[in-house]
Amino acid sequence: MVRGPSVQADAVHGGIHISTAAPAPPHRPWQLPPAVPLTGRTAETALLEGHRDRAARAGRPVLAAVSGLGGVGKTALALAWLHTLRPDFPGGQLYADLGARSPQGPADPAEVLSGFLRGLGVPPQHVPATVAERAARYRSLTADLRIVVLLDDADTAAQVRPLLPGGRNVTLVTSRRRMSGLTLEGCHHLPLAPLGPEASVELLADTLADDRVAAQPDDAHALAELCAGLPLAVRLVGARLAARPRRRITTMVHALSEEHGRLDALALDGDRSVRAALDLTYQALPDAAARLYRLLGLHPGPEFGSAVAAAVLACGTEPPHTAHDAAAGLLDALYDWNLLLDTGEDRYRFHDLVRLHAAAKAQETDAPEDRTAALRRIADHYLATAMAAEKILDPQHATLPRPFGPGPVVAEDLGDDAEAALDWLERELTNVMALVRSARTAGFPQLSWQLTDAIWPLFPRRKHYDQWRAAHAEGLAAAQELGDRAAECRMLTSGGLGELGRGSHRTALEMFERAARLFAADGDTLGHARTLNYRGLAQQRLGNPAEAAALFARAAAELPACGDHRAGGLARLNAADIALAAGQWERAAEDADAARTTLRAADDAYNAARAATLLGRIRLRQGRPDEAESRLTEALTVLRAMAAGYETARAVEALAELAALRGQPEEARDRYREALDLYTAVNRPESAAAVHDRLRLLDEDAAD
User: Is residue 192 a contact partner of residue 73, using CB atoms and an 8 Å limit?
Assistant: First the structure.
């Protein structure tokens, strides 16, 4: 009876060695590639080290995943950090390129495990046959070692899981997509953003290794900005310059300044260009995500919400919610691949170079008519939502037709909240301005003035004077190009009100008079009568109250005769302001009360509240505080609900004055402070300074 292993032989020559297990690993692997100098990643390194410290205190293994764009420096960060750990992890270093973007496809975990086991000293003939057996053997071998493992360019969490070692070791994963599937394994996720401006310049100087950055600092910063913080791009342009030591940085700045050629200029060898790095990620996208990526590249603004993506995807045969649902899933996919940056509140933006890549792919792949249709749907999304905001804030304003493209049109739901409507207009102002500027060259110039007209309610309330002027200049040029006289006059009058607000009173008067001449030439008596109001405002600001009063009187008579009672009410309101300034209180009260009545009948709550504020101020001057309080409180209720910051401030300031007259200094202080905050918020420094002086006088009186 033989128990255990046995050997039967006829004749044996030499020594006999019998073993029932694979031999222990004879050496320690040191497989990490060399680290390159790391620039500007101090904070990220500290985050990784902090995660390692917490895991060590908890007695857990360390697992972290660094994700980001191709070329953003994921592997450089990983290698730089892991090499510093060698003294604490003497058991060795394992490395595998998981080939997520390899032409041959992602690496098979079974093959990677085979390589790891052989690296740990397991002879090929003793490597188990199945993935599960290899993974178990791998965990057993590493359980008592102190090693680090770098899994570079991972494709999915499923690919990574079998490659996690046993014991309290360190595993770092890099990927172009976020490895959210590893969260249950205790993974610490570190999205890697592009470098900041100073770090980019430092990297450029390190790459050049000469004095050109120090000698040409402005050009160096300009070049770094054109590379948009992508280390690969900085290294590429640096390498090209380093090969030509007498070439100035300015030359490369000029080469990159043309957007259409920037990706081509950011190349050194075929496999080291920014375009090639992004192409690899793009090729892995599902078809629907790739299409959304390309067409979002046409968006002219810096960021966008999910409704824009729904507009891009929309077609006439599906309900609106279908496009929204599809957009949400595809945006998640683009975000997971680090092709989009999440800016919060369901909003996204492209890295600058990624946007160029997406637009280039659209140019290569999508037919011109498809690109034009997608851009038109984007523009119509902004136009439709701006019109919804306009209806909430100023329903009387939309008097000119604004037809949409072939559609479908996807608009955001703003409800009936005036504050939300204003916030949307302000948040999207940069995007709308980008469309206003690009609409003519994109083939739909009418959108330039239509968008400008639709966002009008934002300008008098939030005082964005620079955009006010720029939008109306673009809209005016488009209207003139189209020969649309009504739109041209609207751009002149609305734009002129902006010039009044910014203090360019003479320019405003010229614009109003130009509109008046156009109306007269067309025989448009109503349009001409409306300019009387505007010209009166300009004369008032120019210090010509008599001329202003005459123009307001004409407007108050002519506008109702032409059928526009609302505009006639506005003329009475303006006349009341002139009379108040002249100390003609009874006349001012008569005009203000008539304006309030007319405007309320016209359902113009905003201007009716303005008239109530003015009437309250007049009653203060007349020594009728109770009536003043009634009118001012009425106005304030409406203006607060409409988020009309400047007009709210005027009503609050008048109530502060009333409290001071009644001997209520604490209430007066509170009201003045609120008015000061409101004036400051809407950029009215002169009004804020006057309120500040009144507060100072109140404090001095209290001190006495």
Answer: yes
